[in-house]
Amino acid sequence: MLSFVQSWFAPTANPIGVDFGSDSLRLAQVDSTGGEFKLVAAARTDVPAHLKSDPAGKLSFFTENVRELLTQGNFRGRRVVLSMPASAMSIQHLRMAKMDEAALKSALPWECRGKLPYDPSHALMRHIVAGEVFADGEQKSEVIVMAAQREWVNQFLAAAAKAKLDVVGMNVEPKALIDCFSHVYRRKSDQESVNLFVDIGAHATRAVVARAGDILFARAIQVGGEHFTRAVANHLKINAEDARILRAKLCHAQLQTELNRSAATPAPVAEGRNIRGENDISGVGSRFGAESPSCDADAPQDSNAGDCRDAERVNLACAEPVGRLVQELNLCRRYHEATFPNAHITRLIFVGGEARHRSLCQTIAREMDLAAQVGDPMVRMARTTDVGPESGIDRRLPQPDWAVALGLSMGPQGVPAAATATAAKA
């Protein structure tokens, strides 16, 4: 099994999803009634910059801050599902002879030798059989292995126990992400669509190809927000903090423009926010929202000339790392479509903190010539909630960086919150 969620057993709400990323700690909890979800609690805090390269310090930060967030966010209970941080996880594709589940699980440590950055005997491994492929003259299984060092997993669980959390399960980020959007995209056309989820984080990007809730491909790409920020700092000859502030300012201006536009012309509920580039390549239909405004390279239309010039300079500065990311995403696309020639990717869905930078998403979509949208995990949730913007969630805007935390709390589609799932033994 991929995930090892033990059980939910929540009479009043699902367990709390805990997403501990490189730059932030997010907690989210939903309640499910009649197959529909309602957000009941959420809270977040940023990871201090000086701890981002200090694993022990980050775990201490987790223990100290998760308790405060539980109180601050008015969460129900202390039952949590943890996400295995992407920074601690390795992903490897294997092509193996067809065999039953027990034999496959036994064979994985041997097959992974030399392919993981650590000894597989010291790793906790989960796998997915993505499908069947014809290779070397025979039918084989395409297997995706997701692994983490067992010592680190034990340290993470110890930090959670120290915070007095009742850990009922742990999941990997790609599975939590797909679980989340399996609840969002439920139309027949969505079930047939093959989506490439582009989860752009602070230090890396995760590419996940999925169809109808099934993961077909997964890979980590070592390009993320910090690379864009450093590129801006080098190009404009400013320090990294000023570059980060400039990028955040331009992102905020774009979001404010969207808020102003929404206030002027209320839009119907959509399942995402459509992104269109200059070449209008992202027309996925009106139900995905309105076309984003642009100012040359994508600065807000109603911003001043200075913002437009800044946007142009930032986009120019980011051209090299964005180009590398596009190149890697195209390699992912080619591998997947060569493996499963009848499952061509039809849509990009951007998630993660960097998905708030619309110009970045537009550029990637335009270069890959694919329909695209910002994934908003909140669109199908009840609008009535006591959770306000102070939680870090502003319902007026897409929330692509909350997909993992919400997916952890939602669980897999078709598994009710009170159901029991079998734990995969470590």
Automatic annotation (TrEMBL):
InterPro entries (alphabetical): ATPase_NBD (IPR043129), FtsA/MreB (IPR050696), PilM (IPR005883)
Domain of life: Bacteria
CDD domains: ASKHA_NBD_PilM
Gene3D superfamilies (UniProt xref): 3.30.1490.300, 3.30.420.40
Record protein name field: Pilus assembly protein PilM
Organism: Humisphaera borealis
Lineage, broadest ranks: Bacteria, Pseudomonadati, Planctomycetota, Phycisphaerae, Tepidisphaerales
